[in-house]
């Protein structure tokens, strides 16, 4: 028999003063109540209760055992209460990993989360590598490219596109690309996480897929590094729209071939578990979704 249930039944028999009364309170047959108590006594090799036709009473060993049972059951109830509270109200530390160029989007959500739930802490790590969320104990990652681990849960936050661009200095020195095929002969700055490698993919105005094979002297997983290289006139950059929005609006970068729309991607919240999601993760994701909806135009300003 289940030992924990037997402890609960034994304690209820003592509190109720008899097997029948305990059975009624536990919605259990008297025989089953008796069997649970007998199972404990057989396991321990001692008698816990003195039984008469009129009442039951604790033996000396039973009294000591009962006192410990009450403490154990109380500890379990307290543990359940703590777990329930943690599940309903954010507490503890939320460990997040994101890429450098997403911090600007993520920071307002972190600030709102901490202001709303003072009992929670946030450990925000920033980088450009693929992390192992299980081994590194990361609760949530916010990424632009779906993770290679298919066992992780991926929730879409917002859609976004790249923008093909370069600096005025690059155009002055090398001329402006006029056709998609021209990119095959240009120095192209490539993000290492771009899912199609050296094949940049687009849609034309009719919605027909188009692509071009590119090459270049800089491949990096740092969007900021690629942007700085583009601003310096090193090459043509296929950049996330939100990453270069300010530079395009300021005229520091020039949009190229606007008749070709780069393929659409999603910003994702990635986490290890779908069931029994802790309150801190669940509520932070809800805030992310709300913020992404409000910021969609800024995330994808050239859609």
Question: What's a quick, concise take on this entry?
Answer:
The chain is an alpha/beta fold.
Report on the architecture of this protein.
By secondary structure, this protein is an alpha/beta fold. The protein folds into three domains: 3-85, Winged helix-like DNA-binding domain superfamily/Winged helix DNA-binding domain (Arc Repressor Mutant, subunit A, Orthogonal Bundle), CATH 1.10.10; 92-157 and 267-295, 3-Layer(aba) Sandwich (D-Maltodextrin-Binding Protein, domain 2), CATH 3.40.190.10; 159-265, D-Maltodextrin-Binding Protein, domain 2 (3-Layer(aba) Sandwich). Helices cover 42% and strands 26% of the residues. The chain contains nine helices and 14 strands. It has helices at residues 3-16, 19-26, 30-44, 60-88, 103-116, 168-174, 223-231, 241-249, 279-299; strands at 49-51, 56-58, 92-98, 120-126, 140-143, 153-167, 187-191, 199-203, 209-213, 215-220, 236-240, 253-255, 261-262, 264-271. Strands 3, 4, 5, 6, 7, 10, 11, 12 and 14 form a nine-stranded mixed beta sheet that branches. Strands 9-8-13 form a three-stranded antiparallel beta sheet, with no helix packed on it. A hairpin with a 5-residue loop joins strand 8 and strand 9 (209-213). It starts with a helix and ends with a helix.
């Amino acid at each position: 028999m289940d030992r924990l249930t037997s402890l609960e039944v034994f304690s209820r028999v003592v509190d109720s003063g008899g097997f029948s009364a305990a059975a009624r309170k536990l919605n259990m047959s008297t025989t089953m109540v008796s069997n649970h108590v007998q199972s404990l006594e057989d396991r321990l090799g001692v008698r816990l209760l003195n039984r008469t036709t009129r009442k039951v009473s604790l033996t000396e060993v039973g009294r000591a055992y009962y006192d410990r049972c009450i403490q154990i059951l109380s500890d379990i109830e307290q543990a359940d209460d703590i777990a329930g509270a943690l599940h309903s109200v954010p507490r503890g530390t939320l460990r997040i990993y994101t890429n450098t160029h997403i911090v600007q989007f993520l920071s307002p959500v972190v600030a709102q989360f901490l202001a709303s739930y003072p009992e929670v802490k946030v450990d925000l790590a920033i980088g450009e590598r693929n992390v192992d969320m299980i081994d590194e104990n990361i609760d949530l990652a916010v990424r632009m490219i779906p993770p290679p681990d298919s066992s992780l849960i991926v929730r879409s936050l917002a859609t976004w596109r790249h923008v093909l661009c370069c600096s005025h200095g690059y155009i002055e020195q090398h001329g402006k690309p006029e056709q998609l095929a021209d990119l095959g002969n240009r120095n192209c700055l490539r993000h290492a996480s771009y899912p199609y490698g050296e094949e940049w993919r687009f849609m034309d105005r009719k919605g027909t897929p188009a692509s071009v094979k590119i090459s270049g002297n800089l491949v990096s997983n740092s969007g900021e590094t690629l942007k700085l290289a583009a601003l310096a006139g090193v090459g043509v950059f296929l950049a996330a729209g939100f990453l270069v929005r300010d530079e395009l609006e300021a005229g520091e970068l020039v949009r190229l071939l606007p008749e070709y729309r780069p393929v659409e991607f999603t910003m994702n919240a990635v986490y290890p578990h779908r069931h029994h999601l802790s309150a801190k993760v669940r509520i932070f994701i809800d805030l992310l979704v709300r913020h992404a909806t409000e910021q969609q135009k800024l995330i994808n300003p050239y859609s």
